[in-house]
Structure formats: C-alpha cells, structure tokens
Amino acid sequence: MKTRRHASLHLACIGLLASTALLALAPAQAAEAFKLAGKPKIAFIYAATVKDGGWNESIDNGRQQVASELGYPIAVAESIPEESTALKNAIDLYVQRGFNIIVTTSFGYSDGVLEAAKKYPQVAFLAASGTTNAANLESFYPRTYQAWYLAGIAAASVSPNKTLGMLGGFPVAPVNWDINGFALGAQSVDPTIKTIALYTNSWWDPAKESQAAKSILEQNADVIANNLSSAGPFTAAEKAGKASVGFQLDMSKMAPKGHLTSVVFHWDKYLVPTIRKIVDGSWEPNQYGAFPGLAEGVVDITPLSDKVPAEARAKIEAVRAQIIAGSFSPFSGPLFKQNGEEAVAAGAALDDAAIWNMDYLVKGTVGSVK
Amino acid sequence: MDIAFLGSWLGSVPTAAIPLLLASVGLILSERAGVVSLGVEGYLAMGAMAAAAVTLESGSLVLGIAAGVAAGALLALGFGIAVVLLRAEQILAGLATMAIGLGAAGLLGRDYVHRTFEGVTNVDLGSLAQVPLLGQLLFAQDPLAYLAILLTLGGWWLIARSHFGLRLRAVGEDPATADVAGVNVQLHQLFAVTCCGALGGLGGAYLSAVASNVWVENMVAGRGWIALALVIFARWDPLRAILGAFLFGAVEALLPRLQASGFDAPVYLMGMLPYALTIVVLVAASCSRARRNAEPAALGQSYIRQDRR
C-alpha cells in the first residue's frame, strides 16, 4: 500500500499537470467563495501509517501544527486503502458525524475525493498531491525544485571530485524536477559539475537504495542526495565518509556527520492559511490546484551543516531571497536537456505547464528517464 | 566494463543474494518434509523488524539477529501447528501467515520505523580484498554472509547425507510409508517448518541489520516470493539454491551500477528484469524432467495416521 501511495504521489502530478496545461487555454473562471456551514470540524485521511518517516509523517506534522495554531478538533484516519469505496466509506462516516473540512493525503485518492466533493458540496476538501479540483476541492503540491536548487549549491560547495549523485524513485515529473533543480543549483557554482541521477524503480526498498547509493559512490561522487525517504543511502554515504542531502523530513539524524541539509515540507504554511480562509468564508479554490513554493514557505531547506563553506551559504541565502521575491526561477533559460536540445531560451523561464511536463534530465546529468 | 567495475559489482552481489539464499534454503527444508510455507515473506518481515527493534533497544547486534531468528521461527511454529497438527490447508494457512507476519511486523515495529543503527560491518582481511576481480566477492563480506553459506552447506548435508535427512525426505515423499516405518511424521514436519521460519527470520535480519541498517514497513518487497521461485529453480537442492540466489543477486546489484556509470538503459525495463528472470526460471524448471523427479511427492498434502490407506 505504501509503495502504491508513494508511486501515486508523484505519478499523480502528471494528472495535475494536464489540468495545468489547460490553464493556458481556458479562459479565467471567476471562482465563487466557499461558505462553510456550521462550526469547523477537520478530518485527515492517510493512505498509510503516519509514522512512515517520510511523506505521511511530514503531513501529520503539518496537521499537529494546524491543531495547535487553530485549536479545532482534528480526527485522523490511517491506512485507508487508495480505492474509491474505502475512501468513500471513510468520508461518508466523517460527513455524517458533522466533519466539514476533509484533508486527503494521497494521489490515489484523487478520483474518490472528487466524487465526494460533488456529493457533499457543503464540505471543503483539500487533497495533498491530488490531481482533481472543484468548487469545494483544491489539490496542492509544492515547488520542491526550488529548495532542491539551493541544496545543489550546498552540495557543489563540498565536492572536490566535481561529482554528485541523486537517488529518485521513478522518472516522473516531480522527481525529474527535483533532480534537475539539484543539478542546476550545483552547476550554478561550477558549470562542469556532474550529477549522477539514479532511479531505483521503487518508492520503498531500503536494501535496494543502499545498493544504489553504493553504486553512485563507486563513481567518485562526494554527495548523495536522497529523493526517497529511507535511511539506507544516508548510512551508505556516512560509512564512506561522504556527504548527503535529505528530503521530506529533516534527515540529519540519519547521517550526523555528512548531512548537509534536507529539503523539507512545511505543510502548515499551506494548511493553516487555507483553513482560516475556509472558516472565514473567503476561500476560493484554485481550479488548477495550489502550487506554492519557497515564497509561501511550504517547502524549504533545513539549516545548513557546518560543512558548507561561508561563500556557499551567502550564495544560498541570496538565491533563496531572489526566488522568494520572484525575481529568479531555477528553470531560467538558457536551459539545455541532456541531449543538447534547448528546453527554454535565454531570457525566459519554464512555465508551470512545462514544469509539470518535465520528462527529461538537464545537461550535465548522467542517467536515463526512459 | 573494466576489472574494477566487475570487482565491485561482484563484491556487492552477496548483499543482495544472501536474504534470498537463506529464505530458499529454509523453504527447501520445509518442502522436503512436504509442507509448502507460503508465509516466508512474513518470516522475512518479522525477522527484519525484530532484529532492528531488539538491536535498537539492547544495543547488541547479536541479540538483535537472534531475535530476528526467533521471531521468524515463532511465526513459523504457529503455521506449523496449524497445518501439521490441526491439518489446515497449507496454501491458505501460508497466505494467512504471510499477512499476519507483514501486519504484525508493521504493528510491533511502529516505534522503530526509520531509526538507523550501527549494522554488521564487513570483515577486514587486508590485502586479500585487493585481489583483482574476486577479492571483494570472497574476502570482504560481512560475517553473516559467510555464516549463510555455511548454513546452506549444513542444510545440504542434513538433507542429503544425514540419517535425519533420509527420514525427512521420506516424510515429504510418502508420509504414510514413513509412518509405518516408525518415523514421527508430525515432529519432522514441525521441525522443518520451524527451521524454515528461523532461516527466513535470519534472512530478514540480514536485510535490516546488514543490507540497510534500518527497519521500515514493506522493506521485504517481495523477496519471499522470489525465494519460492528459487526453490523450484534449485530443484529442492540447497547447493543449487546458492547458484540461483547469486544469479538474482547479480542482476539486482548490476542494475544501479549500469545506471550510475551512465549506461543508457531503460529504467522500467531493467526494473522488470528480476521478475522476468523469475518467470524464465520457472518455465525452464517446469520443462525439465529433473524438476518433476525432484519435487517431493507429498508436497502440500496434510497427513495424519487415520488417513492412511
């Protein structure tokens, strides 16, 4: 189930992308604000256990933040299978019990939650890594590539061999953009730096991930960036005396010596303001889903380790400020694909539809998305 | 592909192969006694979880690995009691055991998920490991890998050469005749099934304590099923299981290395390889006459004396 959930999370995004792609064509719709009936009662529905050390745990941290900041009662359902009937039963029961704000946390729920949103127009739905949207339903996923770009700068600053490695699950857009963001961040420090991209073909196999990390280390890589959430690669890097970068949660405990930083979610930065709006009646769900980033604080990097030199710290701080101000995009042109083809010309940057469509790796990476 | 590449590739094969090997040797023991232990995926999960949890609690890897073995054996003993003494249908009971193992491991291991610990380190034989090509494979493994090979040889001796093995095989071939000859059928089957659990538990402990130094739910990822296929490939012979397990290990270790060295290979296709290999192996095995001769004749049948004809 967990495997499917992870797969889903990212595969998901392809669907979201389809709707984003339409954004360019469709005339802007004036969405109507959603009115909540009665007192807010919130429920979170997870596809796996919330102590998974990755995706679900990060969202559950956000939920706890919501509970403490807004003070509403929050119910939690774990390990609800990603099939419409199971989800439907859970939602039906919650709605019957008077819950009127429901947060789902898996791509696999996308269709089921849309059905539920149609059935219960008086209930507000928020779907993490979902692909569907409606008048009372908003999907959300952050621009993780922005934070990965910053991590790439940090990684390049500690790489005498000019070689980095990154592990991903499957070659789908949200993984590709993380790898590309990381590689481009590194190249902004040193254009000759090489990033080895390795897909393990699973979201959850620590033994396989350790093997993969070792294969990267055998290629003289100085840093292992782990886009998956298991500990194997961190341990492998730590044993080899190499640096590492984590994802989803702060992974510094996994590699006390080599950890440089982790790209982490701060889901509360999206959930708290959104739920506030739902409660005060000013919520207008984005018909193409929410795509927040560093500026909103939904994704960020953890404090850099002492291994990162001062020069790199200053650069990371400066670039971070530029991204937040909106004056810089990691995917600014000229940007070249692995095969030398130009992805975006100088002076322009990839738009959201192109980012959701990212099915390639950038120049300077070793690896295959096929 | 230079010597260094081949050397490091071969050197990493055992890490991928040993859990498969231990699980399939356990299965061979069980099946030679006529019991199909489909729950092996669950034994692996219990072993992996218990090894990690006890190591984290006690700080002792030896205790942790022993706990992994015990957890697998305990689950298998439950299965054994159900199918051998209570005559439950083996396939269904096996599937249930697998589900219980996976579920219990997830539940009991809840507080230990994702906590890394210092795992088993490789032996250091100094310059021997520098021998080109085979140095890393033969002389730079972890102690458990060597132990696993010894256990496999021991398992082979037990089955093929010992008096006990003769009785065990008799039970798997024709329990009624064995019974008449004075062999305690139930006891032999229970022993074999429990050994299968212990070896599966050790394989799971290897996954968490050696291969990844962490426990997470679902980390066994279908290895138990590959082991089931390996048993047929090995024609119920532990020595041939070494060959099969290392073949699978070699493929698993090769895939990331090809990718990391820039070989332009289709990811999905390569990810499919071990499973495609499983099917090829099964088809090849079922085509051969040797397989039909090797399969224990009473495999999957439950027996008690009153049934004797």
From TrEMBL, chain A:
This is Nucleoside-binding protein. Keywords: Signal. One of its GO terms (cellular component) is plasma membrane. InterPro entries: ABC-Purine-Binding, Peripla_BP_I, PnrA-like. Pfam families: Bmp (PF02608). Residues 1-30 form the signal peptide. The keyword Signal applies. Residues 40-325 form the ABC transporter substrate-binding protein PnrA-like domain. The keyword Signal applies. It comes from the Bacteria.
Automatic annotation (TrEMBL), chain B:
GO terms for molecular function: transmembrane transporter activity. Keywords: Cell membrane, Membrane, Transmembrane, Transmembrane helix. It is a multi-pass membrane protein. It is found in: Cell inner membrane. GO terms for cellular component: plasma membrane. Its main location: membrane. The chain crosses the membrane at residues 6-29, 36-56, 62-86, 91-109, 143-160, 190-209, 265-285. The keyword Glycosyltransferase does not apply. Pfam families: BPD_transp_2. The keyword Ribonucleoprotein does not apply. PANTHER family: ABC TRANSPORTER PERMEASE PROTEIN (PTHR43370:SF2), SUGAR ABC TRANSPORTER INTEGRAL MEMBRANE PROTEIN-RELATED (PTHR43370). This is Nucleoside ABC transporter membrane protein. It comes from Pseudomonas kuykendallii.
